[in-house]
Design a protein that fits this description.
Helix content is 39%, strand content 21%. It is α/β, with parallel strands linked by helices and 458 residues long. It folds into two domains: 5-206, Rossmann fold, CATH 3.40.50; 227-443, Nucleotidyltransferase, domain 5 (2-Layer Sandwich). Helix 11 packs parallel to helix 12 and helix 13 crosses helix 15.
């Protein structure tokens, strides 16, 4: 079996625990794409071979059945085929692979999955342990090996300090201090790169794209846990966004523009609110206009996509019926090639109207836990890599409100490796922040149109 030195170290520790009936619980952190899944599959082939005559079961659980459990099953079959077992193993019930008397059972750790009744007497594997529920593991998976003192392996990459993987890791480190037996194995991207130059080139590119402080780079490549919450942007990150280009009130000829629209709730401002200047308590509809820019780095031959914010529009307390013509007029003026508009809830009919009026350049964006998380990560990657610039401080209310929201923005990191970003309602609004994030999302995979002209007028 062709395993890299760090994979061999883990494999030896697992085998020694099994053959010595030690029943150790091991934790393994390997940087993303560093060979964690291949290590697991090779171990499974070896153990099925060693136990094919005497029998036994190894159990592997994954956070989801599709695609993770399905992929694990397919990967083991591929490895068995490679080692000449293609006519010897059989599949039972779609999730059990048998090699003579030995079995590998693949289960889902999803909340609704029924897994009680299985026994692990060879090995218990917890794949992507950081995404597995502590309660599910403790109540339903851990007992599978209690009667056999089974060896258990938790694989994954770090996330925050509340995950199952982090809990097992900290316990293992404490036990290592007491008895000297190594239980936690950690291999960050630099360790993997020592054995794979192509991997090194790829991760260095990701570091340039995301920035070393990006949550995904920190957790998946540096294997450093993040805090469960806190500020979304640091002071240094905000300062890095401050540009020197002027704010524009009309487009420059030959430039390419995109827009992000965060829609306010449908509520009209009362006369009393207007008279008492309390309109700042209301949500605003905000349009952020940005120019698509290219950044040429000295260390790269490829130009990277960046964005320069050049204008803001804000309407507070304006009914949607009155906003329609204003938004259409604005987007036509700037001839935006791509427009992302909040289509969540009451924003859906507005987004549909804009798409009907202005064509396919308008893309409705529905906020879900995952889509907002992806948007937040994309915004952070632009900030960290220096590819997002704000226009020069012009003393306007819009500029001050944007900076205020950037400074007050908070982040919340969830166990499923998603995040949320927001401004606490008690501290203000996040309409400028969300509009900026929509522009960042609009720039993702942006492809300039070859056809000339602006948004269609029909």
């Amino acid at each position: 079996m062709k395993l890299r030195p760090y994979q061999q170290e883990v494999a030896r520790a697992v085998l020694e625990s099994i053959q010595g009936s030690k029943g150790l619980t091991l934790s393994v952190e390997i940087a993303r794409q560093g060979g964690k899944n291949e290590l697991s599959a090779h171990l499974e082939v070896l153990l099925l071979t060693l136990f094919m005559s005497i029998g036994g079961s190894l159990v592997k659980c994954s956070p989801t059945f599709k695609p993770q459990t399905v992929i694990s099953i397919a990967r083991l079959k591929d490895r068995l085929d490679e080692f000449g077992y293609d006519r010897l193993y059989r599949t039972e019930m779609g999730y059990i692979i048998c090699l003579a008397a030995a079995r590998a059972v693949f289960l889902s750790a999803e909340e609704h999955a029924s897994v009680v009744g299985h026994t692990a007497d060879i090995l218990l594997e917890i794949d992507e342990s950081q995404d597995v529920s502590k309660e599910k593991y403790t109540k339903e998976f851990r007992p599978m090996g209690s009667s056999t003192n089974v060896t258990t392996v938790h694989y994954g990459t770090t996330w925050d300090d509340s995950t199952l993987l982090e809990e097992v890791k900290q316990l293992n480190l404490e036990m290592e201090k007491k008895d000297g037996i190594k239980r936690h194995f950690r291999y960050d991207w630099q360790e993997v790169a020592r054995h794979n130059p192509d991997y090194q080139a790829y991760v260095e590119g990701e570091r340039a794209r995301l920035g070393e402080d990006h949550p995904l780079f920190r957790t998946q490549y540096l294997l450093l846990p993040i805090k469960g919450g806190g500020g979304f942007l640091t002071r240094q990150q905000i300062l890095s966004m401050l540009g020197s280009h002027p704010r524009l009130n009309e487009p420059d000829e030959g430039k390419t523009y995109i827009a992000g629209i965060d829609l306010a709730g449908e509520r009209e401002e009362t006369k009393e609110e207007a008279l008492t200047a309390s309109r700042q308590k209301l949500d605003s509809t905000v349009i952020t206009i940005a120019e698509i820019d290219t950044i040429q780095r000295p260390t790269s031959t490829l130009a990277e996509l960046g964005i320069k914010v050049v204008e803001h529009y804000q309407w507070t307390g304006t009914p949607h019926s009155q906003l329609y013509p204003l938004i259409v007029q604005t987007l036509r003026k700037w001839k935006c090639q791509k427009v992302l508009v909040d289509a969540t809830g009451i924003g859906q009919p507005v987004a549909s109207f804009l798409r009907k009026e202005l064509g396919s350049r308008v893309t409705p964006f529905t906020f879900t836990q995952k889509t907002k998380s992806d948007m937040g990560f994309e915004l952070l990657s632009l900030v960290n890599s220096g590819r997002l610039r704000l226009y020069y401080q012009d003393g306007s209310n819009e500029y001050r409100e944007l900076l205020t929201q950037l400074e007050k923005a908070r982040s919340q990191y969830r166990p499923n490796q998603t995040m949320n970003f927001y401004v606490d309602p008690s501290e203000g609004h996040d309409d400028f922040l969300v509009s900026l994030a929509l522009v960042a999302e609009a720039a993702r995979d942006f492809t300039p149109r070859s056809a000339k002209g602006g948004l269609r007028d029909e």
